[in-house]
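User: Fold this; tokens only.

Assistant: Input:
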Amino acid sequence: MRKTPLVPARIAWSVNQLKIGTGQRILEIGAGRGAAAELVCARLGDGSYLGIDRSAAAVSAASERNRRYIERRMAQFHQLRLADIDPGAIGRFDTVFAVNVNLFWTRRAQRELVLVRELLTAQGQLWLFYEAPTTAVTSRTSTLLGQRLDQAGYGYEMASETVKGALLVQFRCSPT
């Protein structure tokens, strides 16, 4: 029997920050190998999870890791860039989140932030999580991300915490 890979501390911390409830619809941008999906799906009850990632290898690994949730029709994984999502085809989500996805702070990403707004329910939230290698990078990332969120019309709260020696930053965002 194959063992399930361990969940990195930054992923566990990030999922623990989310306000996941039974029946919710959750979208993860940059689902990677499916560690966050596993934790999210365990809390969803009759909800649903969609994970997207640009990498075919990541989608394959995530699908294998979360096979039981796929078989229960709770989880889906697609090789897809955020910019290529059709909001009319997939509906709205209570929570959209991303862990260490550089898209939002390395470039303007206004198109993607507008798209996320279309994907959120009226009370939905965007959560962005980052683990930076140094305090200086954390400061730079937070400043740039805050500017981009302001420009896209999002209100946000930022918090940080040191977990197992790593500084982790979260942005909880709501369209204004």
